[in-house]
């Protein structure tokens, strides 16, 4: 007698998993995945956005009375799952390690129910209810940022290249140090800059804006350097909330090369400014690529 219960398939990104057979496919091509990693994946998909503890994995994979090295067994199953997904523990796209707690599945999941000739796709309820600490939201809008006209052009985490966490962290810190150099250099040469701005109609307002923003942003940049350097918890989410505040100010300070017109020509200042216009977007990309994010051990 056939099983009346419909089989369930899960779709996430380019992957699709059949829960009945444990078969994983990527773009229609089968990916080798053993039974235990497949069981772990099903548990993660069913509880997307929630913490799946190591103890829960142990209870599912090894019933009472089974004698195994549970720590090594869980580590092995998760590592093999990551290999199948092409994921990395230090810069996760799918499976995030929560130190000393367990794991969490990050990206949106579709659950497809096959019942006879009827097939319907529904979003897993937890994908809408659970807070997402990872890099992708179901709507395609980055968490911690508010929707706006830039959402269509801002890169999402899955569109960014994979890179070493130490490399992206170094580049992010160097950009913060560059801005501190701008602020300190401007405040150290107020007389020269005042003379340079004097022909402008709103010279007083521009001069005051420069002083106020430089004084306010120096501690902000020092905070970001320290947060990235020491991998402060939640630095990614904090920066992504700050980014909309920093965006117009970074755009304003992209004009900083023009404060050096006593030393460089107009063409050079314009060229440097066009490069600096991209800087706030580069910082956002580096954060999404893992700058300042705590690197978990590969388990």
Topology (elements, then pairings):
Layout: E1 7-12, E2 15-18, E3 23-26, E4 29-31, H1 35-46, E5 52-53, H2 54-61, H3 70-85, E6 95-98, E7 102-105, E8 110-115, E9 118-123, H4 125-129, H5 165-188, H6 190-197, H7 203-229, H8 235-253, H9 266-276, H10 279-288
Antiparallel strand pairs: 1-2, 1-8, 2-3, 3-4, 5-7, 6-7, 8-9
Helix pairs in contact: 1-3, 5-7, 5-10, 8-10
Description:
The protein has helices at 35-46, 54-61, 70-85, 125-129, 165-188, 190-197, 203-229, 235-253, 266-276, 279-288; strands at residues 7-12, 15-18, 23-26, 29-31, 52-53, 95-98, 102-105, 110-115, 118-123. It is α+β, with helices and mostly antiparallel strands and 299 residues long. It folds into 2 domains: 7-129, Winged helix-like DNA-binding domain superfamily/Winged helix DNA-binding domain (Arc Repressor Mutant, subunit A); 158-288, no CATH class. A 6-stranded antiparallel β-sheet has the order 4-3-2-1-8-9. Strands 5-7-6 form a 3-stranded antiparallel β-sheet. α5 (165-188) runs antiparallel to α7 (203-229). The two termini are 42 Å apart. Residues 1-5, 116-149 and 295-299 have low confidence and may be disordered.
State the total count of DSSP E strands. Answer: 9
Number of helices: 10
Give the total of domains: 2
Structural class: alpha+beta
The backbone outline, from C-alpha atoms, is: elongated
In round numbers, the mean pLDDT is 80
The fraction of residues assigned to DSSP E strands is 5-15%
Low-confidence stretches: 1-5, 116-149, 295-299
| Through-space gap between termini | 42 Å
């Amino acid at each position: 007698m056939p099983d009346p219960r419909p089989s369930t398939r899960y779709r996430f990104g380019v992957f699709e998993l059949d829960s009945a057979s444990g078969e994983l496919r990527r773009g229609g091509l089968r990916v080798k995945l053993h039974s235990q990693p497949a069981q772990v994946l099903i548990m993660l998909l069913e509880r997307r956005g929630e913490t799946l503890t190591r103890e829960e994995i142990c209870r599912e994979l090894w019933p009472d009375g089974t004698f195994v090295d549970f720590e090594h067994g869980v580590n092995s199953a998760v590592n093999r799952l990551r290999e199948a997904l092409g994921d990395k523990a230090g810069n996760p796209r799918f499976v995030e390690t929560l130190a000393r707690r367990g794991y969490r599945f990050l990206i949106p999941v579709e659950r497809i129910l096959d019942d006879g000739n009827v097939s319907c796709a529904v979003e897993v309820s937890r994908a809408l209810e659970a807070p997402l600490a990872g890099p992708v939201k179901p709507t395609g809008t980055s968490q911690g940022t508010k929707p706006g006209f830039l959402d269509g052009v801002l890169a999402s985490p899955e569109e960014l290249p994979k890179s070493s966490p130490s490399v992206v962290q170094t580049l992010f810190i160097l950009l913060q140090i560059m801005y501190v150099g701008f602020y300190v250099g401007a405040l150290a040469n107020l007389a020269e800059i005042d003379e340079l701005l004097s022909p402008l109609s709103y010279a007083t307002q521009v001069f005051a804006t420069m002083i106020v923003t430089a004084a306010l942003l120096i501690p902000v940049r020092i905070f970001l350097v320290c947060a990235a350097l020491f991998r402060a918890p939640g630095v990614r989410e904090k920066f992504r909330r700050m980014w909309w505040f920093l965006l117009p100010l970074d755009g304003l300070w992209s004009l900083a090369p023009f404060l050096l017109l006593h030393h460089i020509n107009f063409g050079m200042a314009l060229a440097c400014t066009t490069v600096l216009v991209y800087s706030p977007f580069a910082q956002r990309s580096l954060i999404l690529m893992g700058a300042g994010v705590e690197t978990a051990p590969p388990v």
